[in-house]
Amino acid sequence: MKNLQLIGLFLVVAGSFLPLVYIPIVGNWNYWKVDNTLAMAVWGFSLLTLIFILIDKTKLVKIMAFLMILLFVFTIVAIKLKSLDYFSFLPFKSWQSAFAGIVKLSWGWFIEFLGVTLILIGSIKNRIEPQRHKDLY
Hints:
Largest sheet: 3 strands, antiparallel
Distance between the termini: 21 Å
Helix content: over 70%
Strand order of the largest sheet: 2-1-3
Number of helices: 6
Strand content: 5-15%
Structural class: mainly alpha
Order of helices and strands: HEEHHHHEH
Number of strands: 3
């Protein structure tokens, strides 16, 4: 199941270049335009995950996958809070919420979460398969 994990890892890295946030007039932003530090964290986690996949450390692969999920959720929350803060100069809260609502999440998040899900599925199936082989011998 290393192949499934590697495909998931490829999707996570490729997803960092896909549009994650759509802002009218400005356009689409990927991880690198949202925040360079968060993009480097995604790539760092991806590198560690690749190393753990290659040396067959299933438990560490799962931990890294959960850390990436937490990072993605943190990024989404930070984007929403930053968009509210960006329009804080408006006098009414309803106006702030309305203008912050124009910042939309894009389809790149689907690829990011699909990649992490494939990594988790691959690590679960990787753990189940060796037990079947032990029963046969």
